[in-house]
Amino acid sequence: MKNNITLIGMPGSGKSTVGVVLAKRLGRRFVDSDLVIQKRHGKLLHELITEHGVEGFWQIESNVNASLNLENSIIATGGSACYEPEGMQHLRDISTVVYLKLPYEEVEQRLGDLNARGVTLQPGQTLRDLYEERTPLYEKYADLIIDCSRKMLRDVVAEIAERYKKQP
Predict the structure, then answer these.
(1) How many CA within 13 A on the CB side of residue 34?
(2) pTM for the full model?
(3) Model confidence over 104-134: pLDDT tens digits?
(4) CB within 8 Å of 14: residues ≥ 6 apart
(5) Burial, 150: exposed, middle or buried (Cβ in 10 Å; 0-12, 13-18, 19+)?
(6) N-term to C-term CA, the chain
């Protein structure tokens, strides 16, 4: 069994929140890849997106994800991590990848200002477009899919912990 767990999913799906609580429950280190990106580049996510464009930011994100050399960690990725195969393949090699799945309506409800959150939208792209584009990618890379719809944080964490233990 791989000793890291990587959380993927839409912005607002709870990757960072679930990650912190899961790390405490399992006695692991918590790593937020968005914070690693900001620290390495000395800029906020939305500044990097403005400076490098959406695809340029995806490459930065992929490079950071591909460089993570961790043990016994819970990794929360940015929502756009799914676009770059190199970074995602590395995360699959070093961890069990868990997709925190939410229906579109709940994602929309949870999100505030998309630009302030560093969400990578192409010009003219809506949140629904983004959701429909990313969902098959999250499903493709996931070892486990956790339906988080209308679930309490503790229930999501418990389900991940239980299903993770059953992994080969």
Answers:
(1) 20
(2) 0.93
(3) 999 988 886 565 565 777 778 888 899 999 9
(4) 100, 148, 153, 156
(5) exposed
(6) 6
CB 88 within 8 A of CB 141: yes
Structure tokens at 147: 């339906």
DSSP, res 83: G
Task: Kindly state the tokens that stand for 2.
Answer: 């791989």
Per-residue CA distances from 121 to 49, 79, 90, 133, 160 (Å): 10, 11, 24, 11, 29
* pLDDT averaged per 10 residues, the chain (length 168): 91 94 97 96 91 93 95 94 94 97 91 64 84 96 96 96 88
- Produce one character per residue of 35-66: b if its CB has 16 or more CB atoms within 10 Å, e if not: ebbbeebebebbebbeeeeeeebbebbbebbb
